Every structure is written in structure tokens, then in C-alpha cells.
Amino acid sequence: MAGEETPGQHPLALAPTLAHIARLQRDRRYRDTHGCFFVEGVRTFVSAVDSGCTVAALLYSERLLTSPIARKLVRRLKRAGIPFARVSPEQFRTVSRTERASGVGVVLRQNLQALARVAPGDGPCWVVLSQVRAPGNFGTLVRTSAAIGAAGFILLGDSIDPFEPVVVRASMGAHFRQTFARASLEELRRWIDQYQLLVVGASPDGAVPYDQVRYTCPTVLVMGDERSGLSQDQRALCQHIVHIPMVGGADSLNLGVAGSLLMYAVVAATKPP
Fold this sequence. Notes:
Layout: H1 14-26, H2 28-34, E1 36-40, H3 42-50, E2 55-60, H4 68-79, E3 84-86, H5 89-93, E4 104-109, E5 112-114, E6 125-129, H6 135-148, E7 152-156, H7 165-171, E8 179-183, H8 185-195, E9 198-202, E10 208-209, E11 219-223, H9 232-237, E12 240-243, H10 255-270
Parallel strand pairs: 2-3, 5-8, 6-7, 6-11, 7-8, 9-11, 9-12, 10-12
Antiparallel strand pairs: 1-4, 2-4
Helix pairs in contact: 6-7, 6-10
């Protein structure tokens, strides 16, 4: 990767590029206005490129980046004409949020879809969320959803940002194998009716244990707010409200754990014998 840049490559000005990336990391409104987000780390970088994400810009430090596969992908992106900035280790660390800077990151185009344009597919389930108090829990759900081959997430309203850096980092590369759609409650209701989908909500007061439902593929799983639970409008969407049995004085599980249990229950109920 060393040496002069060749014709057809597009080096970026360092100061504006670093300022742009820093703001993408901290400012959701800026991310949404530009339709981009930044990810870093060898595993995340490789997953993003291999998943076919649209790369808007590349940032790398030749001295920090030691992974042969990542270095190969950097060369490939540069040959493809992706704008890039080659920086020193110190410059890279000014925008890095990891404990040990890997030396590679990319600005990616957001891919947030309108629900009306999404088909349910044949994966096990979709997860509906309206509030997430801990972004890391959302990242955990994304990892689980990718692990079971589910399609992705339906985000009600504008509260949840799937491109928040903590969410993307916690997903450990699974983020790029999932579909994210935003919808209103009414748009979700029409989508469910159009495809005649089973909808199951989760709540501590649910009448049925979560592993006792006859799930179908795909099931729509509605997860309520971690404190207030399902709203009345969300409950009205559901054919079943399930609970996760707990003993020993425990009264709740965090969103990442509860949602993962539900997703695996769907897989167990729908997998071929």
C-alpha cells in the first residue's frame, strides 16, 4: 500500500475528512442528514465490504493496519476509485472509539428502507422495536437475528438509530446482514394484514409462556419498552402475548436477552423435523 497514489485513485483532504468522521460518530442528526455512518475495525470492515455495503470513503493507517486480508481489501477499494484518506496512527486514533485502534475504517451509506417496499421473506422472524434504552442491547439482538437467519428489524417511529456507533460495534459485523425498515404503527398494521403474518408480543403479564406458541415463518415479534412494556396499540397488533418464566425473585430480562430467547423459540418451533 506504500508509495505514490496511482491515476484513478481519489485521495481525500485529511482535516475535513477527519472532522466529517468525528461528527458522524457523535451526531445522529448529522448522520441522518448525510445518509452515512462510520465503522472501524478489521472484522467490521471486512464484513461490510463482503456484504456489499456501499462505501463512501475509506480511512486507513498503513502502520496500524497489519491484517493481510484487510490490506488487500484496502487496495481493492482504492483501485475501484473509492475516495480515501491515508493517515498516521495518531490521526487515526483521533476518530477511533476502540481500545486498540485497528487502522482501518469506512464511511458507509445508510440503508434504511420503507416497510412498504420490504417483503417478509422466508426467514424465521422480524423484530419490531419502538424504544431501546441501551444501544448495546440492540446490537446483541442484531447478532442473534443474523445468527438464526432472520431478516431484520422494523423500527416504529424515529426514536431508534440503527447506525449509532455502539449498536454497530456491538453487532460485531452482523449489522450488514440485516434489513432495517422504519414504519409508523399504521404502516406496520397494513403490512401485517397484507401478508397475513403471525404477530407475537412479549410482556411480563403475557398469558402464554414464550415456548408454548405455535410459531409460523416468519413471525413478527413485538418487543416493548424495557420499562413500560408494550403499548395498548402494540398489544392490539398481537395474536399472542407471551412471557418468559422466571424464578428466584427475578422480574425482568434486558432486551438483548429476552429478544434472543424469543427468536430462538421461533427457530425451534419452525425448523424442519
